[in-house]
Amino acid sequence: MESIKLTKYSHGAGCGCKMAPSVLEEILVSGSQAPADPRLIVGNDTRDDAAVVDIGNGKAIISTTDFFMPIVDDAFDFGRIASVNAISDVYAMGGVPITAIAVLGWPINEISADIANQVIEGSRSICVEAGITLSGGHSIDNPEPLFGLAVTGIVDIVNIKRNSEATAGCSLFLTKPLGIGILSTAQKKGMLEPEDKDIARDIMLKLNSVGAEFSKLEYVMAMTDVTGFGLLGHLLEVCEGASINAELDYKAIPTIDKIHKYLGLKCIPGGTNRNWDSYGSKIGELTDEQRNVLCDPQTSGGLLVAIKEGCENEFVEFARTQGYELTSIGSTLARSEEGPFINVI
Q: Global pTM?
Protein backbone atom coordinates (compact mmCIF):
# COMPACT_ATOMS: atom_id res chain seq x y z
CA MET A 1 0.00 0.00 0.00
CA GLU A 2 1.32 3.45 -0.90
CA SER A 3 2.67 5.62 1.89
CA ILE A 4 1.14 9.09 1.98
CA LYS A 5 0.77 11.94 4.44
CA LEU A 6 -2.92 12.70 4.70
CA THR A 7 -2.44 16.03 6.46
CA LYS A 8 -0.82 17.57 3.38
CA TYR A 9 -4.15 17.23 1.55
CA SER A 10 -6.13 19.35 4.02
CA HIS A 11 -6.04 23.05 4.82
CA GLY A 12 -7.05 22.39 8.45
CA ALA A 13 -6.65 19.60 10.96
CA GLY A 14 -9.27 17.82 13.04
CA CYS A 15 -11.61 20.04 15.04
CA GLY A 16 -9.36 22.97 14.15
CA CYS A 17 -11.40 22.96 10.93
CA LYS A 18 -14.47 24.12 12.83
CA MET A 19 -15.96 27.47 11.99
CA ALA A 20 -15.33 30.16 14.56
CA PRO A 21 -18.10 30.37 17.17
CA SER A 22 -19.13 33.85 16.01
CA VAL A 23 -19.46 32.68 12.39
CA LEU A 24 -21.51 29.66 13.43
CA GLU A 25 -23.80 31.88 15.48
CA GLU A 26 -24.39 34.08 12.44
CA ILE A 27 -25.22 31.07 10.28
CA LEU A 28 -27.69 29.63 12.80
CA VAL A 29 -29.66 32.86 13.22
CA SER A 30 -33.16 32.37 11.81
CA GLY A 31 -35.96 34.85 11.25
CA SER A 32 -38.54 32.08 11.03
CA GLN A 33 -40.27 30.40 13.94
CA ALA A 34 -39.77 26.64 14.02
CA PRO A 35 -42.87 24.65 14.86
CA ALA A 36 -42.91 23.48 18.46
CA ASP A 37 -42.01 19.81 18.87
CA PRO A 38 -43.00 18.48 22.29
CA ARG A 39 -40.71 15.48 21.78
CA LEU A 40 -37.58 17.61 21.40
CA ILE A 41 -35.85 17.75 24.78
CA VAL A 42 -32.58 19.33 23.61
CA GLY A 43 -32.12 21.38 20.44
CA ASN A 44 -29.48 23.96 19.56
CA ASP A 45 -30.78 26.77 21.75
CA THR A 46 -28.35 26.00 24.62
CA ARG A 47 -25.31 25.00 22.49
CA ASP A 48 -25.44 21.42 23.73
CA ASP A 49 -23.49 18.59 22.16
CA ALA A 50 -26.37 16.75 20.49
CA ALA A 51 -30.10 16.75 19.84
CA VAL A 52 -32.22 14.68 22.21
CA VAL A 53 -35.72 13.41 21.43
CA ASP A 54 -38.18 11.79 23.85
CA ILE A 55 -39.27 8.33 22.67
CA GLY A 56 -41.41 7.51 25.70
CA ASN A 57 -41.06 5.24 28.72
CA GLY A 58 -38.46 7.55 30.25
CA LYS A 59 -36.05 7.05 27.34
CA ALA A 60 -34.67 9.46 24.74
CA ILE A 61 -32.70 9.19 21.53
CA ILE A 62 -29.50 11.23 21.09
CA SER A 63 -28.60 12.29 17.55
CA THR A 64 -25.31 13.88 16.54
CA THR A 65 -22.76 14.13 13.74
CA ASP A 66 -19.15 15.24 13.51
CA PHE A 67 -16.59 15.10 10.73
CA PHE A 68 -13.33 16.81 9.82
CA MET A 69 -10.20 16.71 7.68
CA PRO A 70 -7.11 14.66 8.63
CA ILE A 71 -5.36 15.49 11.90
CA VAL A 72 -2.83 12.65 11.48
CA ASP A 73 -1.09 11.19 8.46
CA ASP A 74 -1.98 7.55 9.07
CA ALA A 75 -5.32 6.63 7.47
CA PHE A 76 -6.26 3.98 10.04
CA ASP A 77 -5.58 6.40 12.91
CA PHE A 78 -7.53 9.14 11.14
CA GLY A 79 -10.57 6.89 11.00
CA ARG A 80 -10.17 5.96 14.64
CA ILE A 81 -9.75 9.52 15.92
CA ALA A 82 -12.64 10.91 13.89
CA SER A 83 -14.87 8.15 15.23
CA VAL A 84 -13.89 8.62 18.89
CA ASN A 85 -14.55 12.33 18.45
CA ALA A 86 -18.00 11.84 16.91
CA ILE A 87 -19.14 9.28 19.47
CA SER A 88 -18.02 11.59 22.29
CA ASP A 89 -21.07 13.84 21.87
CA VAL A 90 -23.33 10.98 22.91
CA TYR A 91 -21.30 10.36 26.05
CA ALA A 92 -21.23 14.09 26.81
CA MET A 93 -25.04 14.12 26.88
CA GLY A 94 -25.00 11.22 29.34
CA GLY A 95 -25.96 8.47 26.91
CA VAL A 96 -24.52 5.39 25.25
CA PRO A 97 -24.16 4.93 21.48
CA ILE A 98 -26.31 2.36 19.71
CA THR A 99 -25.34 2.77 16.04
CA ALA A 100 -23.26 4.90 13.66
CA ILE A 101 -23.11 5.67 9.96
CA ALA A 102 -20.11 7.09 8.13
CA VAL A 103 -19.63 10.44 6.40
CA LEU A 104 -16.77 10.24 3.86
CA GLY A 105 -15.44 12.80 1.41
CA TRP A 106 -12.50 11.63 -0.69
CA PRO A 107 -10.35 13.10 -3.51
CA ILE A 108 -10.54 9.86 -5.43
CA ASN A 109 -8.26 11.08 -8.25
CA GLU A 110 -5.60 12.14 -5.75
CA ILE A 111 -5.64 9.42 -3.08
CA SER A 112 -6.43 5.79 -3.86
CA ALA A 113 -9.51 4.01 -2.62
CA ASP A 114 -7.47 1.53 -0.59
CA ILE A 115 -6.34 4.40 1.66
CA ALA A 116 -9.98 5.36 2.21
CA ASN A 117 -10.61 1.72 3.09
CA GLN A 118 -8.07 2.03 5.90
CA VAL A 119 -9.97 5.04 7.25
CA ILE A 120 -13.15 2.98 7.33
CA GLU A 121 -11.36 0.06 8.97
CA GLY A 122 -10.08 2.39 11.68
CA SER A 123 -13.60 3.61 12.27
CA ARG A 124 -14.94 0.06 12.50
CA SER A 125 -12.38 -0.79 15.17
CA ILE A 126 -13.52 2.12 17.36
CA CYS A 127 -17.18 1.30 16.86
CA VAL A 128 -16.45 -2.23 18.07
CA GLU A 129 -14.67 -0.76 21.12
CA ALA A 130 -17.75 1.39 21.79
CA GLY A 131 -20.03 -1.64 21.46
CA ILE A 132 -21.74 -0.58 18.23
CA THR A 133 -21.68 -1.39 14.53
CA LEU A 134 -20.71 0.93 11.69
CA SER A 135 -23.90 0.23 9.81
CA GLY A 136 -23.80 2.37 6.67
CA GLY A 137 -23.06 5.88 5.51
CA HIS A 138 -22.61 8.23 2.58
CA SER A 139 -19.59 9.20 0.47
CA ILE A 140 -18.77 11.92 -2.05
CA ASP A 141 -15.86 12.82 -4.32
CA ASN A 142 -14.34 15.81 -2.52
CA PRO A 143 -11.26 18.00 -3.08
CA GLU A 144 -10.02 17.32 0.47
CA PRO A 145 -10.34 14.11 2.49
CA LEU A 146 -12.84 14.28 5.32
CA PHE A 147 -14.37 11.68 7.56
CA GLY A 148 -16.70 11.39 10.50
CA LEU A 149 -19.81 9.72 11.82
CA ALA A 150 -23.47 10.38 12.41
CA VAL A 151 -24.14 8.66 15.73
CA THR A 152 -27.35 7.65 17.44
CA GLY A 153 -27.41 7.05 21.18
CA ILE A 154 -29.90 6.34 23.92
CA VAL A 155 -30.25 7.79 27.40
CA ASP A 156 -32.55 7.68 30.39
CA ILE A 157 -34.20 11.10 30.44
CA VAL A 158 -33.33 11.60 34.11
CA ASN A 159 -29.63 11.24 33.22
CA ILE A 160 -29.46 13.83 30.44
CA LYS A 161 -26.77 16.44 31.11
CA ARG A 162 -27.42 19.87 29.59
CA ASN A 163 -25.17 22.92 29.51
CA SER A 164 -27.98 25.10 30.81
CA GLU A 165 -28.33 23.13 34.06
CA ALA A 166 -25.02 24.12 35.61
CA THR A 167 -25.47 26.19 38.78
CA ALA A 168 -23.38 28.69 40.71
CA GLY A 169 -21.01 27.05 43.19
CA CYS A 170 -20.11 24.03 41.05
CA SER A 171 -16.56 22.71 40.89
CA LEU A 172 -15.19 22.13 37.39
CA PHE A 173 -13.20 19.08 36.27
CA LEU A 174 -11.52 18.14 32.97
CA THR A 175 -10.78 14.52 32.01
CA LYS A 176 -8.10 15.02 29.32
CA PRO A 177 -5.14 17.42 29.11
CA LEU A 178 -5.10 20.38 26.73
CA GLY A 179 -2.62 20.89 23.91
CA ILE A 180 -3.75 18.59 21.12
CA GLY A 181 -4.04 21.45 18.62
CA ILE A 182 -0.52 22.64 19.42
CA LEU A 183 1.05 19.23 18.83
CA SER A 184 -1.05 18.68 15.71
CA THR A 185 0.16 21.99 14.30
CA ALA A 186 3.75 21.00 15.05
CA GLN A 187 3.16 17.78 13.11
CA LYS A 188 1.64 19.61 10.15
CA LYS A 189 4.64 21.97 10.09
CA GLY A 190 7.09 19.04 10.18
CA MET A 191 8.43 20.19 13.57
CA LEU A 192 7.11 17.40 15.79
CA GLU A 193 10.00 15.40 17.23
CA PRO A 194 9.83 11.60 16.76
CA GLU A 195 9.55 10.90 20.49
CA ASP A 196 6.44 13.11 20.65
CA LYS A 197 4.60 11.77 17.62
CA ASP A 198 2.15 9.49 19.46
CA ILE A 199 1.30 11.71 22.46
CA ALA A 200 -1.67 13.55 20.95
CA ARG A 201 -2.84 10.47 19.02
CA ASP A 202 -3.06 8.35 22.15
CA ILE A 203 -5.06 11.03 23.99
CA MET A 204 -7.44 11.46 21.06
CA LEU A 205 -8.04 7.71 20.87
CA LYS A 206 -9.42 7.45 24.42
CA LEU A 207 -13.20 7.13 24.38
CA ASN A 208 -15.16 9.43 26.68
CA SER A 209 -17.38 6.50 27.66
CA VAL A 210 -17.00 7.46 31.32
CA GLY A 211 -19.57 10.18 30.57
CA ALA A 212 -22.30 7.54 30.61
CA GLU A 213 -21.26 6.67 34.16
CA PHE A 214 -20.90 10.29 35.29
CA SER A 215 -24.43 10.99 34.05
CA LYS A 216 -25.89 8.62 36.64
CA LEU A 217 -24.55 10.78 39.47
CA GLU A 218 -27.12 13.25 40.75
CA TYR A 219 -24.45 15.76 41.72
CA VAL A 220 -23.18 16.04 38.13
CA MET A 221 -25.00 19.21 37.10
CA ALA A 222 -23.67 19.69 33.56
CA MET A 223 -21.25 18.04 31.16
CA THR A 224 -19.81 18.81 27.73
CA ASP A 225 -16.82 17.70 25.69
CA VAL A 226 -14.00 20.09 24.83
CA THR A 227 -13.32 20.21 21.10
CA GLY A 228 -12.71 22.85 18.45
CA PHE A 229 -13.71 25.95 20.43
CA GLY A 230 -11.10 25.23 23.11
CA LEU A 231 -11.69 24.98 26.85
CA LEU A 232 -12.74 28.62 27.12
CA GLY A 233 -15.21 28.36 24.24
CA HIS A 234 -16.98 25.31 25.58
CA LEU A 235 -17.00 26.60 29.16
CA LEU A 236 -18.47 29.84 27.81
CA GLU A 237 -21.30 27.82 26.25
CA VAL A 238 -22.02 26.40 29.70
CA CYS A 239 -21.88 29.84 31.32
CA GLU A 240 -24.13 31.49 28.75
CA GLY A 241 -26.57 28.58 28.71
CA ALA A 242 -26.89 28.59 32.50
CA SER A 243 -26.45 32.36 32.99
CA ILE A 244 -23.50 31.98 35.38
CA ASN A 245 -19.86 33.04 35.59
CA ALA A 246 -16.77 30.89 36.00
CA GLU A 247 -13.28 31.21 37.42
CA LEU A 248 -10.45 28.95 36.26
CA ASP A 249 -7.24 28.15 38.14
CA TYR A 250 -4.74 28.07 35.28
CA LYS A 251 -2.09 26.11 37.20
CA ALA A 252 -4.62 23.36 37.99
CA ILE A 253 -5.64 22.79 34.36
CA PRO A 254 -4.09 19.59 32.92
CA THR A 255 -1.91 20.15 29.86
CA ILE A 256 0.33 17.94 27.75
CA ASP A 257 3.86 18.29 29.12
CA LYS A 258 5.56 18.90 25.77
CA ILE A 259 3.38 21.77 24.51
CA HIS A 260 5.51 24.61 25.89
CA LYS A 261 8.40 23.54 23.69
CA TYR A 262 6.18 23.82 20.61
CA LEU A 263 4.57 27.06 21.73
CA GLY A 264 8.10 28.44 21.79
CA LEU A 265 8.39 27.35 18.15
CA LYS A 266 5.17 29.23 17.29
CA CYS A 267 3.15 26.06 16.65
CA ILE A 268 -0.15 27.80 17.25
CA PRO A 269 -3.21 26.62 15.28
CA GLY A 270 -5.10 29.17 13.22
CA GLY A 271 -8.20 28.07 15.13
CA THR A 272 -6.73 29.48 18.35
CA ASN A 273 -6.84 33.04 17.06
CA ARG A 274 -10.25 32.50 15.44
CA ASN A 275 -11.58 31.31 18.77
CA TRP A 276 -10.17 34.27 20.68
CA ASP A 277 -11.46 36.74 18.10
CA SER A 278 -14.92 35.21 18.48
CA TYR A 279 -15.29 35.21 22.25
CA GLY A 280 -12.31 37.03 23.76
CA SER A 281 -14.46 40.03 24.69
CA LYS A 282 -16.31 37.78 27.17
CA ILE A 283 -13.13 36.56 28.88
CA GLY A 284 -10.98 38.29 31.50
CA GLU A 285 -7.40 39.38 30.88
CA LEU A 286 -5.02 36.57 29.84
CA THR A 287 -1.31 36.18 29.16
CA ASP A 288 -0.27 35.06 25.68
CA GLU A 289 0.46 31.58 27.03
CA GLN A 290 -2.92 31.29 28.73
CA ARG A 291 -4.72 32.36 25.57
CA ASN A 292 -2.77 29.92 23.39
CA VAL A 293 -3.51 27.01 25.73
CA LEU A 294 -7.09 27.76 26.77
CA CYS A 295 -8.26 28.62 23.22
CA ASP A 296 -6.34 25.73 21.65
CA PRO A 297 -8.79 23.75 19.48
CA GLN A 298 -8.99 20.21 20.81
CA THR A 299 -9.86 17.19 18.72
CA SER A 300 -11.47 14.34 20.68
CA GLY A 301 -10.81 16.29 23.87
CA GLY A 302 -11.94 15.45 27.35
CA LEU A 303 -15.16 15.97 29.27
CA LEU A 304 -15.73 19.20 31.17
CA VAL A 305 -17.86 18.31 34.20
CA ALA A 306 -19.63 20.64 36.65
CA ILE A 307 -20.08 19.11 40.13
CA LYS A 308 -22.58 20.35 42.70
CA GLU A 309 -21.08 22.30 45.59
CA GLY A 310 -20.00 20.06 48.45
CA CYS A 311 -19.74 16.89 46.33
CA GLU A 312 -16.22 17.39 44.98
CA ASN A 313 -14.54 14.70 47.12
CA GLU A 314 -17.24 12.18 46.35
CA PHE A 315 -16.82 12.81 42.63
CA VAL A 316 -13.02 12.55 42.78
CA GLU A 317 -13.34 9.17 44.50
CA PHE A 318 -15.86 7.93 41.96
CA ALA A 319 -13.68 9.11 39.07
CA ARG A 320 -10.79 7.18 40.58
CA THR A 321 -12.84 3.96 40.39
CA GLN A 322 -13.23 4.69 36.67
CA GLY A 323 -9.49 5.13 36.15
CA TYR A 324 -9.29 8.94 36.35
CA GLU A 325 -7.20 11.01 38.76
CA LEU A 326 -8.93 14.39 38.69
CA THR A 327 -8.40 17.74 40.38
CA SER A 328 -10.75 20.70 40.28
CA ILE A 329 -9.71 23.32 37.70
CA GLY A 330 -12.10 26.04 38.83
CA SER A 331 -15.63 26.86 39.86
CA THR A 332 -18.83 28.51 38.72
CA LEU A 333 -20.18 31.71 40.24
CA ALA A 334 -23.40 33.68 40.29
CA ARG A 335 -23.75 35.76 37.14
CA SER A 336 -22.46 39.29 37.34
CA GLU A 337 -23.95 41.63 34.75
CA GLU A 338 -20.71 43.58 34.73
CA GLY A 339 -17.39 42.11 33.66
CA PRO A 340 -16.48 38.94 31.77
CA PHE A 341 -18.19 35.58 31.91
CA ILE A 342 -14.89 33.80 32.69
CA ASN A 343 -11.84 34.91 34.65
CA VAL A 344 -8.55 33.03 34.85
CA ILE A 345 -6.35 33.27 37.92
A: 0.91
